[in-house]
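Intended use. Records like the one below are meant for learning the mapping from a protein sequence to its folded structure. Do not use them to infer anything beyond what is encoded.
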Amino acid sequence: MGWSVALACASAGEPAEVFRPGLAPDPDPEAAASLARGLYPAATLGQTGDTVLDFALWPYEDELFVGVFDRALLVCDRRLFCLDDDARRIADTIAAALPGARCGVLVLHSVISGCWFRWYDSGELRRDVFVTAEDGVVVDQGERLAAERPFWKPIDDGAPDVPLPFDPERFGLALAEAHMFGRGIAERGGDGFLPLELPLRRFKIC
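Structure written out for the chain above:
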C-alpha cells in the first residue's frame, strides 16, 4: 500500500494507553478552532464539518484537520510535506500545544519514496530524520528511537545508504506504531479501536 501522510500526533502519556476505545473529541467546539488559529493566526479559517483520520491524512493544500482529545492532539496539514521552515514552525507549534506531551510528526508520500519524522518531548525536539529511497539519509539528528534501530543496522554495519537499504514507508509506519499510536495506524486491535477512525474537525484556510 502506498501511504500519503502529513500528520502530527501528540499524547500526554503512553500512546497505547491514551489511544483507546471511548476516546472522544473535546466537546468544546472552540478547542479545535483555537489550535487551528494558533497555527495560522493571519489566515481566515472556516469550519467545514467533521471527518475521520482515514480521510484527513493527506489534506488538500487549502485544508487543515484538527482533533483535540483528552490528553491527545491530532493535526493533518499538507504543508508539513514541504519540509521547509514553515513546516518546521507548524511541527514545533503542535508539539508545544499540549503541556508535557510527546509528539511525533510523520510525513510520507505514495509517489516520492521518503519519510520525514520528528519527535518531541515536552515541546523539545529530540529526533529529526529524513530519508529517501534515492538520496539515502538526508537528515539524521538526535538519538535514534528504539523502533528505528533495526532499520539502521545495514548502514551501521557498513552498507551504503544510496540506495537506501530499507523501505522509507515501513520505517515511518513502524515509528507511528511505536511512538504515536501504540499500534499500527491501520490496525484494529482486539479492543476494537482503530486509529484511522479517530474523529477530526475540518477547516478551510483562506
